[in-house]
Design brief:
The chain is mostly beta strands. It is 6% helix and 43% strand. Strand 5 (49-55) and strand 6 form a beta hairpin. It is elongated and about 60 Å long.
């Protein structure tokens, strides 16, 4: 499991006083402000985050040390991370996306289906993007109890019961 968990990304500057447009990846988007300070991807820079008002696809935010539009523009595309210790423990049937990426996926008979490339959510539910063995082709598997009855983080594997014809 990775120590840093991506909670958001900077979409660009907002105004001329160093504010940024912040996209939250939290289940409750406003919660991103409660995990401050957030770290840069390399973990070297810590930003105290003060959320402003909601905007399309996120929030306005002020980051400590960012006071000009040019500084805010330079951060466009930067992802912001929290340490695992900052995050709450999850119930047994919930997982951080970062913990699922890279896990081996097997069907209920033990056949390797691939490994998780990423976790997507386009509004309805989470989807596991699975890279098939020996190929660059991917398959999207719904991340539901029916399709994914077992996630074993300690063993680094997922047992899947995919819908007929998916693989």
């Amino acid at each position: 499991m990775t120590e840093l968990i991506c909670l958001g990304a900077i979409a660009g500057s907002y105004g001329v006083n160093g504010a940024v447009r912040l996209k939250s990846f939290c289940a409750v988007p406003e919660d991103i402000g409660s995990y401050t300070p957030l770290l840069s991807e390399d973990g070297q820079t810590a930003y105290t985050v003060t959320l402003g008002h909601p905007i399309k696809n996120g929030f306005t935010a002020q980051l400590s040390g960012v006071v000009t539009k040019e500084q805010a523009d330079a951060l466009k595309g930067a992802r912001l991370f929290a340490t695992r210790a900052q995050l709450p423990s999850l119930p047994d049937d919930e997982f951080y996306h970062a913990d699922l990426i890279g896990l081996k996926v097997l069907d209920t008979g033990g056949t390797v289906l691939g490994h998780v490339k990423t976790v997507l959510n386009h509004g309805a539910a989470d989807l596991l993007e699975i890279i098939q063995p020996g190929s660059s082709a991917t398959v999207l598997l719904p991340f539901t109890k029916e399709a994914v009855p077992t996630v074993d983080l300690e063993s680094g594997r997922i047992i899947a019961d995919p819908p007929e014809g998916l693989f």
